Amino acid sequence: MCTACIQAKHTQKIIKVKTNRTTKPFELMHSGIYQPFSMPTSAGHRYYILFIDDYTQYTSVWVLPYVKSNTCNSAYQTFQTRVDSMG
């Protein structure tokens, strides 16, 4: 048995927290920055950030050259502009 297989079969206690469901698109967003690609894109980008709408599950993926606050903020502002133009 490998350690990963044993750990994957462990059960976890699920703590349910009552939450209010979103009632309109883009009311609640989730985002995350992910590890660098093993090989950069042709433009030299190595990271990606996701923006996911909780209501519609609309997902937007942005490829970034590096993870710095100004790069992430720029991606979010561009995404927000796109969302505003949809409404």
Weakly predicted, low-confidence segments = none
Question: SSE order in H/E notation?
Answer: HEEEH
Strand count, sense and barrel status of the largest sheet are: 3 strands, antiparallel
Helix run count: 2
In brief:
This protein is α+β, with helices and mostly antiparallel strands and 87 residues long. Helix content is 28%, strand content 22%.
Written description of the protein model:
With 87 residues, this protein is of the alpha+beta class. The protein has one domain: 2-Layer Sandwich (Nucleotidyltransferase, domain 5), CATH 3.30.420. It contains 2 helices and 3 strands; from the N terminus they run αβββα. Strands 1-2-3 form a 3-stranded antiparallel sheet, covered by helices on one side. The radius of gyration is 18 Å and the shape is flat. The mean pLDDT is 84.
What's the helix and strand layout?
Elements: H1 3-8, E1 29-34, E2 47-53, E3 59-64, H2 69-86
Antiparallel strand pairs: 1-2, 2-3
Looking at this protein, list some descriptive labels.
87 residues; alpha+beta; Nucleotidyltransferase, domain 5; three-stranded antiparallel sheet; 2 helices; 28% helix
